[in-house]
Design a protein that fits this description.
71 residues; mainly alpha; 0% strand
Length: 71
């Protein structure tokens, strides 16, 4: 029996396994691509890299000043 749901979801363990393997393969390819572009820059898990070219956000700066005045 095939699942004919409109969104393509299935409960078949073999299809789920194949989908997971495909997703893992895509993740590995993407990770490899990112490493090749970044030049193997070491980063810790969950680390956020701030762009150096960003200008300061004036609205946030003004809100910080306001909050300090209220304290």
């Amino acid at each position: 029996m095939t699942d004919s749901t409109p969104n393509g979801l299935t409960n078949d363990p073999q299809e789920l396994l194949q989908a997971k393997q495909q997703a893992d393969k895509q993740k590995a390819q993407f990770s490899s691509f990112v490493r090749s572009v970044s030049g193997e820059v070491p980063t810790e898990k969950g680390q956020v890299v701030e762009p150096q070219h960003r200008e300061t956000d004036q609205q946030n700066n003004m809100k910080d000043v306001e909050n300090r005045m209220l304290e």
